[in-house]
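Suppose you are handed a protein chain with no further information: no name, no annotation, nothing but its sequence. What can you learn? This example shows the usual starting point.
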Amino acid sequence: MTTAFPPMDRSRLAVRNLVLTLAFACAGCMSGHPESPPLRLVSETAPTMPDEALPWWKGAGDPLLAQLIEQGLAHDPVLICQAFDLTQSVDKAHAPGLRNRLTHLIAQDDDTARRAQAYAYADARNHLAERIALAYIEARRWQERLAVRVKATDPLRDNGEIAHFRKEAGLVPAMDGDMADVMTGLDTASVEAARNKLNEAIGTLARLIHALPDDLRGQLGNEGHLPALAARPANDRSHRADLRGLELRLTSNLTRHKVEQDAIDSAAKAPEDATGPAPEAPAKPAAGKKGDPKITADARAKNAVAAWRAAQIRADAEIHDASGALDTATLRLAPLAKAEATATRTVTDARLGYRSGTETFSMLYVAEAAVLAAQEGQIDARAAAAAAAVRLWSAQGLGWHDADLAPAPTEGVTVCVQP
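A reasonable first move is to predict its three-dimensional structure. Written in structure tokens, the prediction is:
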């Protein structure tokens, strides 16, 4: 006896049978054959930095810097959306239902894509932390520069009063009083310029951490102290999240095109100058089959290895540049400290000499300018060293740890639209 189904029921039955057939077929394939080991572009190397020492700002020695970085990471809308998308993809992969299980079975590279997405999120955290730290250092730099300029105001005012007194007494020409007025005016202008720069720096930092400038100003306090950050010189890219994500994407593509590990190993053994992008000359299609010709497996392996090496070269260059900048800034500190000490002694002698009539006002003017320049040079060098340390940590990818690869669901967020 034949049973007739309405058109809609017959269609649903056909789809259901197809889904079941594919599900059982995929399940049988995956359970009947052991999984091949994942492809790799490099030998497994364990990161040299233990996870408990990460991220770098935990041990940087500046609690306020660490607090502000964590605040900025927690409130950044782009990171919130990335974390939301990441948790959504994980939830979807583990959701109940035949459709989700079938999708998970058929799309074998879903897990690779999620892992690459997680590394992209970790890399974004690393770079945002770097931007916040550099903005913090800039704010501290202008706090210190403003302080030394304000401190220089009183001696300049005293010098001016002495110059006017001696001019009225006929002991010095009128030019001394005029020069004193010029110096005082220039100092007042420089103080205002430093204050404006500080306000700009605080505004930039406030935007990065999503705080109000006045609230941030209260956290920073009136006296700025540049952090004495010391990054260990290294040439270690093993913890860079961008490289880990790139390797996942490259090997996933190779797996999808059925490239064997032997082809990758052969391309990796070739000299570096021989692993430029392979000419994508297509192999001849198999006899009797139509369609677009495919790139050979060896060419795909060569292209992947070339892309991987190029990324490594860029990473090494970033680390090398940051390490060199740190060395250069550190070497400047001792000579600048010596110059500041000499300038301080000179300006003390010049002030005494002018008041006793043994030195000219022009000599005093030069000495005052020299000590201020030496002090600001010291501040700038310490800021450059701190910034180079931050860039070196970031270039090594030390701004994230394993927990960042599986962020907790963002409470209260159901839909996320990136700004």
